[in-house]
Task: structure prediction
Amino acid sequence: MKQQVRDAGIFDILEKRMTHRNFRDAPIEDDVFEILMDVAASAASSGGLQRISIVAVRDPERRKKLVEMSRGQTFVEKAPLSLVFCVDHRRVRRVAEYEGSLDEPALAIELLWMGIIDAAIAAQSVALAAEAFGLGSCYNGNILEQPEEMSALLELPAGVVPALMLTLGYPSSSEYKPSKKFDRSMLLHDEVYRDRPVEELYSAYKEKHPQTARLTPARRESLYRALSQQYGEEIANARIEKVDEAGVLTPYQFLFGCYYFDDDQTYTQAQYLDFLAKNGFDFRK
Ligand SMILES: Cc1cc2nc3c(=O)[nH]c(=O)nc-3n(C[C@H](O)[C@H](O)[C@H](O)COP(=O)(O)O)c2cc1C
Result:
C-alpha cells in the first residue's frame, strides 16, 4: 500500500517518530535551521492568518534559564536549539489598528484558541521535518507554568503569548524506543462519539500504563493535597482511602497528585487569567 503514496518517506518518519531527550553536542546547521523555519512558515493556519511567532533560543545562558523554568529538564540545556512557539496577536492587532480595523475583544477566546492550534501545527511540522534531517525533538509543556517569567526571558511584548516549546538536536542514540500507545480503536469514533464502558477504558489504560509507584508518605501527602484542593476534603478522604488500600499509586494518581502538582511553581488559575488579560485575552469578565 505504501508504494502507492507519493512519497513513502513520510511514513518511515511517522513510524519511527518518538520523543528524544538525549542530544549530542552538535550544532544544527544554518541551512537545516532555515529549512525548518520555512516549514513552520508554510504550515496551515486558521484563516491563513499565521498568528504565531517563533523565538529560537540558542544562547547557553538563556538555555539554562529554560531548564529552570521547566522543572529542571536538563536536556533543554544540552540541546543546541529550543523553539518557543507563541500566539502572536500583537502583530495582527498592530496591523489592524494601522489600517483602522476593529480589534474585537469579544473574540478573545477564539483568537487564543486558534492561535494555539496554529502554533501546534507549525511546531509538529517542524518536528517531523527535523526527523528527516536526523534530528530529534522534545516538546516542553512545563514552560507554561511560569508564563510571566518566560515572557520576560524572551522579551515578549504584550500580545505575544508562549504556547509551547520544541527542543531540537542530534540524538545521542539512534535506538528506537517507542512509547506505548492506545490502539487506534480507543481514539476513533465512527460518525458519532460513543462512550465506552469505563471497564474498557480502564483496561486500556492499565495496559498502556502498567507501572505503579510506591506509596511513600510524601507522595500520599502530595496526592491528598491535590485532591482536597481540587475536590474538597470529603472526596479527598474517600479517594485516599482507596489509595491506602492499594498501597501503590497508579500513573494518573502520580501524575496529577505528585508530579505536576506543586504550589511553588505553577500559576493559579487566577494568575493565568491575569497574565492572559495583560496580553489582550481577557476572559475574567
Ligand atoms: C504539549 C506537550 C508537552 C510535553 N511536555 C513535555 C515535557 O515537558 N517534558 C518531556 O520530557 N516531554 C514532554 N512531552 C513529550 C511527551 O512526554 C511524549 O510525546 C509522550 O510521552 C509520548 O511519547 P513519544 O512522543 O515518544 O511518542 C510533551 C509533549 C507534548 C505534546
Notes: Residues 108-132 form the longest helix (25 residues). The chain has a mean pLDDT of 91.
